[in-house]
Amino acid sequence: xxKFVKKxxxxxxxxxxxxxxxxxxxxxxxxxxxxxTVNILFNxxxxxxxxxxxxxxxxxxxxxxxxxxxxxxxxxxxxxxxCGVAYQGIFKNPMADPFLLGxxxxxxxxxxxxxxxxxxxxxxxxxxxxxxxFVSALLTLLLVYNISRIGNKVPVxxxxxxxIAISQFLTAIISLFMIFSDQMNRVVFWTMGxxxxxxxxxxxxILPYVIIGFIILFRYHRQMDIMxxxxxxxxxxxxxxxxxxxxxxxxxxxxxxxxxxxxxxxxFVGLIIPHIVRMIVGPKHKKLYPYxxxxxxxxxxxxxxxxRSLINQEIPVGIITAIFGGPFFIYLLKxxxxxxx
Amino acid sequence: MNLEVLKTENLVxxxxxxxxxxxxxxxxxxxxxxxxxxxxxxxxxTLVKAITNIIDSHSGDIFIEGRENRNISKKERxxxxxxxxxxxxxxxxxxxxxxxxxxxxxxxxxKNKIGQKDFDIVKEAMTLTNTWDFKDRFFNELSGGERxxxxxxxxxxxxTHIILLDEPTSHLDIHHQLEVMELIHLxxxxxxxxxxxxxxxxxxxxxxxxxxxxxxxxxVVADGTPEEVIKEEHLSKLYxxxxxxxxxxxxxxxxxxxxxxxxxxxxxxxxxxxxxCGGGTGEKILERLKSLGFNVTAGIINEGDSDWxxxxxxxIPCVVAPPFSGYSNEDAxxxxxxxxxxxxxLVTSVPFGIGNLLNLEVLRNIEKxxxxxxxxxxxxxxxxxxxxxxxxxxxxxxNFNYIQNYDELLQKL
Lengths: 341, 413
Prior knowledge:
heterodimer, A: mainly alpha, ABC transporter involved in vitamin B12 uptake, BtuC, 2 strands, 74% helix, globular, B: alpha/beta, Rossmann fold, 2 domains, 6-stranded mixed beta sheet, 6-stranded parallel beta sheet, 20 strands, transmembrane transporter activity (chain A), Iron chelate uptake ABC transporter family permease subunit (chain A), ABC_transptr_permease_BtuC (chain A), transmembrane (chain A), transport (chain A)
């Protein structure tokens, strides 16, 4: 059985992925059948098939509301997962997630400022909360990187510690803002992360970061494997470790900043998916990256579907991922105490 | 002249204020097996790190195959120098093939693909190190010795001219230590690879190295063949212990026998003792007496006897007779003189035959205290009862004492 799964893993994952996309696009308040969903999506994407007789509103719900949201969830889940893979590799730390170096608190501070000061200009079709969050996240990482730099080297432990310090510092500032503002609710909701009311625009906004980021990360898959043997050994095997660290940090900074600025902070996906995938396909990044992307995408689609359809009111998806992710992660830890995690 | 492949010139490396390498000058030539020895914390491993540019040097230069180290990129350097580190465990489930394939990293070109050629090189390296059989097993499932062989295979796959070993056997049992060292020695011979090995085991270093470099406080103390470097005057002070340096006849190599690091009280200074021994029965006690401060003499011993060698190493004055022959009267006289100069006489559990009976006979007229080591396991008489007879006579003397062990003796003296 296990052998069979491993052999056909790629097909299995693709089938599960497609099924998830179709089923989760179908689930919702308005009653639409799976066949209708498939029909509409197929028609929209390939211009083949017949959607006559299907209500215009149904098509709009599927194509303009649910499908972009599902695809955004896929993209964000995938993006956070590959960043998690990269961070766990570069830091050799199983507890690393994409928000380790303060990108989340940086984004949150930017968003908080935009919310608290009610900056509502529209910038290239984007609201200011997104723009502020993006810029602030990048600035935070730049700050953390520069604080940690000693000469031309950036030691990993220093990077981790300054990331934690800056994170705490920014969180404190966010709290200060919240105390003196009547917008506390909006800030809290933003930080919990949500895919509510997202459109094709948002998807198109983060798509280039994710695609280009993925390509660059994947290019360095072999060096990342060697990095797992330790920085000194990697260096002796011809890996330019400082350059690799810089590339990974810059690329993941852009990916996470882009996704966080659109969706808010969605935790746990970037932490647990790399672990699960590592158990299935092993530690080599050549496989870790693509499988993590797809599985992370699937996970976030499911979590988001639960978030919007569990009860009448929408729950921020960050809460769902944490509620499921936390215990699941503990289960994994208990199950496999030996190396790898 | 041989090609100089690795060289340091006035190399200084410091951690904070502490100079770990202090104007270190070494030259390594092509095809050599150079052992680097020295006490802990003298900068041996730092040297490896400096050569591979993991730590920056404070001043001075390193040249690898004539090129200045700081101008060599990591990738290029990994084509010149491979490292076998001290210990190697990883938390991830890489197969051994994965690990060895990582050795190909510096050779992978812009296309970023592993080709058939890389695979062939890896296979050859793993076959050579006898690790191909477990290529698909996980690295962290292997024993320490097997792991180290995989790492050696990885170094071979790097196809460098120089391999640096940083205490490659320090966590291995003696079998695997030897196995790894033999493997590296074989490689050096087969492929004409230059090997620079930081080793903590002096005997292992002396056995496998063409040349030894002894380092202390970041400086070269001695540099030369094992015979030139393995000398008591170099080593005993450096390692602050008492040791014997001798030829290991079986291997034909220099070796040291570490004796003790904590000094016993030398309260017995000035006491003279003469030891009657032979056939290796004196080995144990001669050194101990000497280190306690006794003025030790011995005799009569045949040349070539292992007790004779000990006396030679410890510079104990003794009366020596030619190999495989009885003692002449002249020898006996010399022996009597030595005995008369001493305060005590010790007879070890040496068996007596026709040849050395004189050693027992001489004691008949000696009035000094005589201590006779009694060992019931050994038949002492090989002289048709003559030795027993002599012993019976000696027993009656007031100055004659039996002892059961040497601690008893040392208490009495």
